[in-house]
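**Protein of interest**
===
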Amino acid sequence: MAPSPAYDARADEYIAALGTMDAVHPVDRAIVEAWAARLAGPVLDAGCGPGHWTAHLARSGLDVRGVDLAPRFVEHARAAHRGIRFDVGTIDELEMADGGLGGILSWFSTIHHAPEAVSTPLREFARTIRPGGGVLLGFFVGRVLEPFDHAVTRAWRWPVDDLSERADAAGFDVVETHTRATRGTRPVGTLVAERRA
């Protein structure tokens, strides 16, 4: 489960630094947009933070809503992106019907889940996405699976193969993965997968 009190305490700082699409790396933006263009049906931005990705997907024509555990993020998202639904909730227990979604964007929303806990949101994503629907995970990449001191609270670096195995075990077929290393920042990855029938 994401650390809501820790994020609430630093939400305004996070919003100012990272809460718009201007802060998104162009490579990441292109990957998410290409993934989203293949989706059909409602989409969830799981761990939506300030809601900028949710709004971006909505502008592209998707039926999308956001959910986040931090009330301050949801408050900001509702004010900044009127007309889009944002709810306070946990990605570990989504209040959604089985198989009702065409896709889930999980943009760095599982980074605080320890290895023994990350299967919980992945199984929830699999439960709520229809067969053939898609999930996209953003995460921090490492050569070994290890924790590190994130700016907010402890997070985890994942080797791509390890996270791919967890996604496969949850019911997804991994379609593609990407890694990006930019000077001065932590290496990051994206994992695109489809829900198996």
User: Anything to note?
Assistant: The longest strand covers residues 129-141. The chain has a mean pLDDT of 93. The helical segments are 4-18, 26-36, 52-59, 71-80, 119-128, 160-170. The chain has one domain: 4-195.
